[in-house]
């Protein structure tokens, strides 16, 4: 409500009647506004739910808890793999086992991609033979459009601060 | 846990930025009604105003780190809301809704019914008419008067905050608001107030 605030003072003092009328209009406006449509009861909860991950949240320690926990779990698992055979098989074997595990984790996906390359090439060739020229053009056009959209999305500037 | 109601806006923002994002709830609860009514003045449609109010809060949350604590949060919030409302009006196309739904299988038209029955339809109707009379009168005011009336009576901002928001001396704001209400009174049908 705004009608209870002190009334403004003026350079040229309006008449008492005008002031009284103004006060009445203020109260009337406040009453009208108060009876206008309202927000749903769960509006605050809706806003809280609709909040995106804000850029400034990256700087908060709390935001890094989950990634840090995952990284720690990976590290501990890795250390566990290294330490498990240490007692029975000796440090050299433990190191070798750990090296193999880490090597496989890193290299296998790359190796898999390389081994898939010939299969991918033959698949592309099969598609090319099966497609009509019109189908080929349509597919090429769709691929170009998808590439364009992806480039546009990647080049999009970060959201500006509200004006 | 939400902050106690006596914690000021700047302190709440400091807490939010320090990791207490749940305090944003207190800020929303503090301003949501005033902001909604202020936006409603622009959109004229409550549904649009609800969506826009939510959008403004979401925008504000995303940009909270750019808030300058030298100024009041309310002036920043209402400035963003004013700009968002104007953008919304620019984007909005005229939407015409039929008062009657398409005919059903038996060829009879069905009227739209209000979702919730009002306790006193006559009183509600009177208020609605009065509101539309006032809205129409406010629409006829010059832009600067209309904005000041919206900020003061719909956004419920104190004179000082309006002065800060508009970059005007306090006396000018008071004077202009008095003249705006005078102009509004002249536009209302006799004996409305």
What this model shows, in words?
- The complex is a heterodimer of chains A (163) and B (193).
- By secondary structure, chain A is mostly helical.
- Chain A has a domain at 65-129.
- Chain A contains 6 helices and no strands.
- Chain A is flat, with a radius of gyration of 34 Å.
- Chain A starts with 15 loop residues before the first helix and ends in an 8-residue tail after the last helix.
- The mean pLDDT of chain A is 79.
- Chain B is mainly α.
- Chain B has 2 domains: 1-94, RNA polymerase sigma factor, region 2, helix turn helix motif (Rna Polymerase Sigma Factor, Chain: A, Orthogonal Bundle), CATH 1.10.1740.10; 122-193, Arc Repressor Mutant, subunit A (Orthogonal Bundle).
- In chain B, 64% of the residues lie in helices and 2% in strands.
- Chain B is built from 8 helices and 2 strands.
- Chain B has helices at residues 9-17, 24-43, 46-62, 73-91, 121-140, 143-154, 159-166, 170-187; strands spanning 100-101, 110-111.
- A two-stranded antiparallel ribbon of chain B has the order 1-2.
- The radius of gyration of chain B is 20 Å and the shape is globular.
- The model of chain B has no long low-confidence stretch (mean pLDDT 84).
- The chains are: A mainly alpha (163), B mainly alpha (193).
Brief account:
Chain A has 163 residues and is mainly α. Chain A has six helices and no strands.
Helix coverage percent of residues of chain A? 55-70%
Distance between the termini of chain A: 27 Å
What's the architecture of the largest domain in chain B in CATH terms?
A: Orthogonal Bundle
Helix content of chain B: 55-70%
Number of E-state strands of chain A: 0
Radius of gyration of chain A, taken over Cα atoms and rounded to an integer in Å: 34 Å
Poorly predicted runs of chain A = none
User: What share of the residues of chain A does DSSP label as strand, in percent?
Assistant: under 5%
Taken in chain order, the helices and strands of chain B follow as HHHHEEHHHH
What is the terminal separation of chain B in angstroms? Answer: 44 Å
* Largest sheet properties of chain B: 2 strands, antiparallel
User: How large, in whole angstroms, is the Cα Rg of chain B?
Assistant: 20 Å
Strand order across the largest sheet of chain B: 1-2
Secondary structural class of chain B: mainly alpha
Mean pLDDT reading of chain A:
79
* Bulk shape of chain B: globular
What is the overall number of helices of chain B? 8
């Amino acid at each position: 409500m705004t009608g209870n605030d002190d009334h403004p003072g003026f350079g040229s003092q309006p008449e008492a009647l005008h002031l009284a009328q103004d006060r009445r209009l203020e109260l009337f406006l406040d009453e009208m506004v108060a009876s206008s449509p309202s927000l749903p009861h769960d509006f605050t909860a809706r806003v809280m739910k609709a909040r995106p991950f804000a850029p400034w949240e990256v700087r908060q320690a709390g935001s890094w808890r989950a990634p840090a926990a995952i990284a720690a779990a990976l590290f501990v698992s890795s250390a566990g793999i290294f330490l498990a055979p240490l007692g029975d098989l000796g440090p050299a074997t433990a190191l070798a086992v750990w090296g193999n595990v880490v090597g496989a984790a890193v290299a296998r996906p790359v190796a898999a991609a390389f081994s898939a390359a010939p299969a991918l090439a033959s698949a592309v060739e099969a598609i090319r033979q099966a497609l009509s020229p019109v189908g080929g053009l349509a597919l090429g056009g769709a691929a170009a459009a998808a590439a364009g959209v992806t480039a546009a999305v990647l080049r999009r500037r970060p959201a500006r601060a509200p004006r | 846990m939400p902050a106690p109601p006596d914690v000021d806006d700047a302190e709440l923002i400091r807490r939010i930025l320090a990791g207490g994002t749940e305090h944003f709830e207190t800020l929303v609860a503090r301003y949501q009604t005033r902001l909604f009514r202020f936006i409603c003045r622009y959109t004229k449609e409550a549904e649009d105003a609800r969506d826009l109010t939510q959008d403004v809060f979401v925008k504000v949350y995303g940009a909270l780190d750019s808030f300058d604590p030298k100024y009041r949060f309310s002036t920043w919030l209402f400035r963003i809301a004013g700009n968002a409302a104007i953008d919304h009006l620019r984007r909005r196309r005229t939407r015409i809704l039929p008062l009657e739904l398409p005919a059903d299988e038996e060829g009879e038209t069905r009227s739209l019914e209000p979702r919730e029955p009002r306790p006193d339809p006559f009183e509600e109707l009177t208020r609605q008419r009065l509101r539309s009379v006032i809205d129409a009168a406010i629409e006829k005011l010059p832009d600067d008067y209309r904005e000041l009336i919206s900020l003061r009576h719909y956004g419920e901002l104190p004179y000082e905050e309006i002065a800060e928001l508009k970059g005007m001396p306090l006396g000018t704001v008071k004077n202009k608001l008095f003249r705006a209400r005078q102009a509004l009174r002249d536009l209302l049908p006799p004996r409305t107030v």
